[in-house]
Amino acid sequence: MIKYGLIGYPLGHSFSKEFFEKKFLREGIINSHYELYPIEDVNDLKTLLLENPKLKGLNVTVPHKINVISLLDELHDTAKEVGAVNTIKIINGKTIGYNTDTWGFAKSLFPEITAFKSKALILGNGGASKAVQFVLNKLSIPFKIVGRDKQKADYVYEELNKSIIEEAGIIIQTTSVGMYPDVEQSLNIPYEAINNNHFCMDLIYNPEETTFLKKSREAGATIKNGLQMLHEQAEESWRIWQ
Ligand code: ATR
User: ∠ CA 26-105-74 to the nearest 5 degrees?
Assistant: First the structure.
């Protein structure tokens, strides 16, 4: 039996195991198993690999997409350029880091954006945000980053005002704020400035409609959650593992 899995912490929100189990059944893949490995400390990856010699591939989620890099033997070019890893391929004990969030996000965003003013605001500056930044750069869509640390972002949340929100046609929520089970939470932004000229996307897919998306929809925006992105990045991970 070949093993695949997901590392991150916590993992109660994740649909990855369900996605791969359904894929294995649908496609008649009989020799593979996908497991959730909730590890709080990313350094536990080493023990996990030692204890599971049949592991051939791992997905990586919050909060390890950036800090896992220093533990890997090699990095694929895209992952290097992005500065974050969400997929690890294991060959004879050697770990190679890839980023398929870029593919997943691009596939998910592409059909939606033409109708909206091509300037973006990215909420968050972690590993998922870095994949979004990479794709927007490739699409020549200018963007500003909102974070909690002024040193690493264009704006902190407290600085956001009506004109900054109106300037952006596309708002991408990349943080884990509002993810199951803390579904009532949402980032503090001026939602009253959002209108029907906005496309608001949340990379979270559980819940289906986050509080960020609900408030954005109620303000008139077109909305999209992270479910298509989850599926696309997972399929791309699978292609890499094969
Ligand atoms: P990963 O790299 O695996 O995506 P991460 O680096 O911990 O995980 O990223 C989590 C993201 O959620 C970051 O963008 C983080 O914001 P900062 O870049 O400002 O640190 C964001 N985040 C987590 N909790 C948050 C909160 N309470 N408010 C705002 N942003 C939050």
Answer: 85
